[in-house]
Amino acid sequence: SDAWSTSPLYRTRLCGPKEEDKHKLCIPYDVEASWQTWLLKAHRNKVETLVEQEPRVYLTITNLKNEVIIAGDPDGCQRIINALDCHALLIPFDSVIHNPLARAEYETFVNLYTHPVVTRPDCRFYSAATYSPLVLEDKALAHAVADMCCQSVTFPRLVNTVAYPSSTAQKTST
């Protein structure tokens, strides 16, 4: 959309020069902020343990219990990959998203994603932020998207929530 392509949020704050990343990580504005995104074929629990030891690396997405995406400082990402000795694929996506650094832009996300809801299909939609049904109202949806952009997303948990709504499986993160 025009809002995405013209918004400083996606042009300079969380992408490109990553002004927000520099601010949060105390990187001088005249130094390029290094950021890499990697897909790892490794178990989420092992990756989480290693990410906890790297203050500038984030577990951003869990696709499967043994396939995750990490992002952040290239050296920190490489240390995790080396420790895991796993298959790793560098992803050409350098956006500072799905981690706590994006929280500084929360209101910008809300403003960017606030749109009128014109139809409400007879279908239940779920949030990848709260793993619960969405309220199909403009502000509620904008906040749900903002929440999702500011935290890690665990797709198996979302799928289990939808597939087994009364099961304890929805509470697992694998």
Task: From the structure above, extract its key features.
5 strands, 38% helix, alpha+beta, 8 helices, 5-stranded mixed beta sheet, 174 residues
Strand order of the largest sheet: 4-1-3-2-5
The share of residues in helices is 25-40%
Over all CA atoms, what is the radius of gyration? 17 Å
Percentage beta strand = 15-25%
Residue runs with pLDDT of under 50 for 5 or more positions: 26-31
What does this structure look like?
The protein has 174 residues and is an alpha+beta fold. Helix content is 38%, strand content 16%. The protein has eight helices and five strands, in the order H-H-H-E-H-E-E-H-E-H-H-E-H. The protein has helices at residues 2-6, 8-13, 19-25, 44-51, 74-84, 106-113, 138-149, 155-163, and strands spanning 36-41, 57-64, 67-72, 87-91, 153-154. Helix 4 crosses helix 5. The chain starts with a helix and ends in an 11-residue tail after the last helix.
Write a concise synopsis of the structure shown.
The chain is an alpha+beta fold. The protein is 38% helix and 16% strand.
Topology, element by element:
Layout (H helix, E strand, L loop, with lengths): L1 H5 L1 H6 L5 H7 L10 E6 L2 H8 L5 E8 L2 E6 L1 H11 L2 E5 L14 H8 L24 H12 L3 E2 H9 L11
Parallel strand pairs: 2-5
Antiparallel strand pairs: 1-3, 1-4, 2-3
Helix pairs in contact: 4-5, 6-7
